[in-house]
Design goal:
This protein is mainly alpha-helical. It has 6 helices and 2 strands, in the order ααββαααα. The protein has a two-stranded antiparallel ribbon. It is flat. 15% of the residues are buried.
């Protein structure tokens, strides 16, 4: 069982945001104790190991997609495993060569609301393209560059 997560302090919402105020006031305090609410992104992050809300990572080495319905691996890895002819244990130990689909990690650019393109890149697709094609910088230098700004979430 996990310890409840602390809820971030509520920012000043002001008179100009009555809808958000209404939503915030309707949230159950017990619910807020088990989730993490990001006030800047206005996104709820669920604990990965919560029995109802959670979505743990795939068991395959290098895969960070979530798994559902009591499965051990994501649907993509499960499909590849069945085609591989390997045991589950051997397949799960192999490093995953590539990732398709959405990840559970967010882009490393502070306050960016998009998921990382890959575990290796650790940046969302627009930030990855900006780093590789435009600025041509290593990741750590890219993250400090003044032209790098957060992107709004996609959904």
């Amino acid at each position: 069982m996990t310890a409840p997560l602390q809820v971030a302090a509520e920012p000043f919402l002001g008179e100009d945001d009555p809808r958000t105020r209404q939503i915030v006031e309707a949230l159950d305090p017990e619910f807020l104790r088990i989730v993490r609410w990001d006030w800047e992104l206005r996104v709820i992050f669920y604990p990965k190991d919560h029995p109802v809300l959670g979505m743990p990572d795939c068991c395959v080495n290098g895969c960070s997609r979530g798994v559902r319905f009591e499965r051990k691996m994501c649907m993509g890895c499960e499909r590849a495993w069945k085609q591989s002819g390997q045991s589950l244990e051997d397949f799960a130990k192999m490093a995953k060569p590539r990732m398709l689909g959405m990840r559970q990690e967010m882009c490393r650019v502070p306050r960016c609301g998009r998921p990382a393109k890959s575990a290796r890149s650790a940046l969302c697709d627009p930030h990855h393209r900006q780093r590789v094609d435009t600025l041509k910088l290593p990741v750590e230098e890219f993250l400090r560059h003044p032209a790098v700004t957060p992107r709004a979430g996609t959904g």
